[in-house]
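Table 4 source record.
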Amino acid sequence: MPLSKFGFAGAIEDLIAKTPSNEIPLDLAALALVIPITGSCDIGWSLRELDSLAEEALALAGEHASNETKLEALRVTLFDKHHFRGNAEDYYNPDNCFLNRVLESRKGMPITLSLIMIEVGRRLGLPMVGIGLPCHFVAAYLSNEGVRYFDPFQGGIERTREECRDLVSSISGGSIEADDSHFAPVSTPHYLARMLCNLRSIYRQRGEYANLAKVLRQMLLLKPNNPPLHLELAAALAEVGSPLEALHHLSLHAKLTKDPSERAPIAVIEREIRKRLAFLN
């Protein structure tokens, strides 16, 4: 899909506005959402890198290879040759969430590494999807014989469904169990939303409100009528000294919130924002 179709180097706004949700290319969309947050992303290089990885895997598999052979070549190319792996040492580094930077460093979060396996696999003609487990993310290969699950965070090892369940239980300390609904393929909009949720958590924990606001704006492109997102963005904007925009999102929150009891706490936030606006004036 040519980048020229999407204006500002494939900006996420253009992708969402011009493309049906079920046709949004996952690789391009994941790269496009980087731009408003970090300010830059060499989308062309990143797409060529995905192409190159696919070419290496295809060369390893050989001409007229079966899908099973291509799948093994994909695993070997990504994890044995190029050493893509989970960044357990610095898990909450925002770079782990950005596809372009994971392609550079070969380290990332489960969801970003799964994206690379899915997109390189797609270039090989392999039917692969993302599986958004609680607390974790894996890539799945779909075939007539059934579904096979791979864990890119752990070097692309294959897991059974029961092993995936056990992993979720282990990560959550036994507080969460994965049911059958968690093994449904993740759509592109939901994939992007989950990537942004990871960034939101990281920037919120760090108190980086300017970056948090950038992420929340991207989330609102996917869910424009979500009152809690408008409220959270208003609070973040107040922290970074943008009271006018903060009031705008408070107003949108009020319009979208039907329950009057949910609007009452907003008055406190609005008073604080108006104080800051008066100070700036």
